Amino acid sequence: MEESTLTLPNENWPSIEAGWVWLCGAGPGDPGLMTLHAVNALRQADVIVYDALVAPEILDWARPEAEKIYAGKRGGKPSAKQVDISLTLVDLAQQGKRVLRLKGGDPFVFGRGGEEAQTLIQHGVPVRIVPGISAGIGGLAYAGIPVTHRDVNQAVTFVTGHDQTGEATKTLDWDALSRSSGVLVIYMGMKHAPSIRAGLMGAGRAADEPVAIVSQATTPNQKVLETTLGQMLDDIAKTEMGPPAIICVGRAVLMRQVLDWQALMRGEQPRNLDPLGRGKPAEVRD
């Protein structure tokens, strides 16, 4: 493959210094959702330590001579241990390398970026943090689902589907979450979808509450399942939805009926211009 001709708009960009680690988010999948700072880092790094969810096209923007080290972790598959990844970053930096740690989404949103940065700093390694677009926001937006909408919710809660061991988390207060947040965005929840459903319905969320599951968000393989809390397990099985996926619970899911912009680009018409049942077009409000 030919080297990418992607260029940055000007020359006033920070440089990775020898012995530094840049901890960068690669966004939810679509290479176009990378930040310019992350692209700048790719063009300078001596070594790139990257995760499973980083698109191969993104790595094509690296310097041809850059070393690439895969450090992906996927549930249910052999994966590098977090402590080993963190200490590898320390070792590379202490060798005087210019190191880019590239993580899917945003490294500080259920991405263990905080753990890695903490280890680096504890070992005296200087760090620069470059945020990325989180899948729980950007991935849902690509599916036509706004995580906030004035007619739906005044709060949104981001939840992880498992704890440090990979098992269903036992520390979440489903009653409190159900009462306080109209929209829940659940990362890494597919494996434990039965316990998530049971927790929410046990806390009083209705069986007919809208649910969307977005798999491989923002990529050409993106799949979206629109279902309900009561029906979600059967529909997941029927459609063979699998990780990586984001689960969104709440009436914001209904907005996809009018905001599925990818369908509109294909020439399809909105399924419902008034999915919230307001009875008339929304007025422009200050």
UniProtKB/TrEMBL annotation:
Chain coiled-coil ranges: none
Metabolic or biological pathway, per its Swiss-Prot or TrEMBL entry: Cofactor biosynthesis; adenosylcobalamin biosynthesis; precorrin-2 from uroporphyrinogen III: step 1/1; Porphyrin-containing compound metabolism; siroheme biosynthesis; precorrin-2 from uroporphyrinogen III: step 1/1
EC number(s) recorded for this UniProt protein: 2.1.1.107
Gene3D superfamilies assigned: Cobalt-precorrin-4 Transmethylase, Domain 1, Methyltransferase, Cobalt-precorrin-4 Transmethylase, Domain 2
UniProt cross-references to InterPro entries, sorted A to Z: 4pyrrol_Mease (IPR000878), 4pyrrol_Methylase_sf (IPR035996), 4pyrrole_Mease_sub1 (IPR014777), 4pyrrole_Mease_sub2 (IPR014776), CobA/CysG_C (IPR006366), Siro_Cobalamin_biosynth (IPR050161), Uropor_MeTrfase_CS (IPR003043)
CDD domains: SUMT
Molecular function via GO: uroporphyrin-III C-methyltransferase activity
Pfam name, any one: TP_methylase
Keyword Methyltransferase: yes
Keyword set, alphabetical order: Cobalamin biosynthesis, Methyltransferase, Porphyrin biosynthesis, S-adenosyl-L-methionine, Transferase
Top-level taxon of the source organism: Bacteria
Tetrapyrrole methylase domain residues: 21-232
GO biological process, one term: siroheme biosynthetic process
Presence of the UniProt keyword Methyltransferase in the record: yes
Family affiliation: Belongs to the precorrin methyltransferase family.
Descriptive protein name: uroporphyrinogen-III C-methyltransferase
